[in-house]
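Backbone shape codes:
===
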Amino acid sequence: MYAISMTEPGGPEVLVWTQVPDPEAGEGEVLIDVAAAGVNRADVLQRQGFYAPPPGTPPYPGLECAGRVAAVGPGVTGWNVGDEVCALLAGGGYAERVAVPAGQVLPVPAGIDLVTAGALPEALCTVWSNVFAGARLAAGETLLVHGGASGIGTAAIQLAKASGARVAVTAGGPEKLARCAELGADVLIDYREQDFVAETKAATDGRGADVILDIIGAKYLARNIDALAPNGRITVIGFQGGVKAELNLQALMAKRGSIASASLRARPVAEKSAIVAEVRENVWPLLADGRVRTVVHRTFPMDEAADAHRALEGDHTGKVILTR
């Protein structure tokens, strides 16, 4: 088969569509003919040499895909050849085929095409596992989402609103903030022009955000604590603003706050399968009835993965998708 390989760490130009060994469905696995694959920040980090795939994972990027079941391995039940599915991957989505543990496979929701489905699993599983299962966002609480116009951000806005929470977002510029508002965001903060701490407190009568979903990391740590409500929870899922910062424990303790961080990719299969099962139960109905939808910025042919990475690293809103 063909897949996107990397000749060496570097810029988008190192991504090459090349012939590689065919995968096979092993014990407990499903083999998928890939129709589409979502493009994520983690793929960019892998391309740059900062995020190696877990042992035993295909070396090609791609943490989510959609397609049709080509084969099922021994011990697999519930999936049949020809089923339209999407899947959460540890890697290997930028390819014609990928083998994935059966517990990480989801049916394509009713009314959603295969291409769009390729951008569902990573963002929705990330938001669910961090904001709801981890930080326990509840109805009536306020969620602050950094990067509200990103793939993760657009998913978080909609899931939080569907749960009855209030949503504040940061994004760069009025156009991105307008898209966030269309998805239901209540408080719109242009991080280029406004102080998100002051704006969050002003919108909550000085209380702050109950949950903060952060893709920035070190650069925002102190200000996130300042913006946090009493008993608030910060969940860090990215480090675009660095990985090291000084933590003022007294300030965190005064808020009775907590900070957690997690990634999906390195979790054991059993943990990822449990997350996928929760997403299927709690989020898939919201997709089927239209309360949650995927915002697609642009699609690219699979062999133009370099251009897809350039788009992701540029000015975009929502998801970038590779198609076959």
